[in-house]
Amino acid sequence: MRQAALIAATCLLVMSALSPVGFFYLFPRLIARADILQTSQNIQAHQGLFLAGIFCYLVTFICDILVAWALYVFLRPASASLSMLVAWFRLAYASMALVALLKLVTVLRVVRTSEYLDAFGRNLQNAQIQLLLISFRYDWAFSMIVFGVHLGFLGYLVYRSGYVPKLLAALLAINGLAYLIDTLRPYLFPATALPYLPVLFFGELIFMLWLFFWGSKIQDPVADVVPIRATP
């Protein structure tokens, strides 16, 4: 359990460091949503930055798979079946995110391969790049619904565990609810402004800190030993 907690916390730390680099720094420098021609030129001129952004997301989603396994081991004493269900939800999210990431790989392929430009022309090539970028954004956003459900079940499992503070269970459940609201808002209530919603997204980060400093010190449960009588 101690090793699983440390692995989960380390992977969460790597994710929290790499994902914002791609989301808030690398891709905003390349993608101009109002000007697809400028976006295409930026990607063409800075292919290394675009590839670095893909790498940040790839490592993040692979870490999600490791976190799913580590949390399963760490929370299995609370409920083996529920812990497995929670892990499968995170694996499903990671799989959907990795499939969405292939759209960005295809963008890089379209930009680098001259045959696409010769076959479609500049306008159709730019339209294809825009479609792939939008598809990645929407596909990943849809996968966050599964991730929000995962955090809700994770919060319930943490609450049942007895060896993790119940406050963390509430924070994880609130974090999952925030992901659901943020993902579904454009479809269900697009005119509603939620300026304070980002405050609710820190539950998993707080859980990561707890895993680092306290979860990694938890002792494994000792199984009951049933004495066996020697037969004559």
Considering the chains and any ligands shown, give keywords for the structure.
single chain; about 230 residues; mainly alpha; 7 helices; about 80% helix; about 0% strand
Secondary structure blueprint with pairings:
Elements: H1 2-30, H2 36-45, H3 47-75, H4 80-112, H5 114-161, H6 166-188, H7 203-213
Helix pairs in contact: 1-3, 1-7, 3-4, 4-5, 5-6, 6-7
Description:
This protein has 232 residues and is mostly helical. The chain has one domain. The protein is 79% helix and 0% strand. Helix 1 packs antiparallel against helix 3, helix 1 packs antiparallel against helix 7 and helix 3 packs antiparallel against helix 4. It is elongated, with a radius of gyration of 22 Å.
Task: Give the amount of beta strand, in percent.
Answer: under 5%
Unreliable stretches covering 5 or more consecutive residues: 223-228
Q: What gyration radius follows from the Cα positions, in whole Å?
A: 22 Å
- Note the total helix count: 7
Overall pLDDT level:
89
Tell me the major beta sheet: none
Gist of the model:
The protein is an all-alpha fold and 232 residues long.
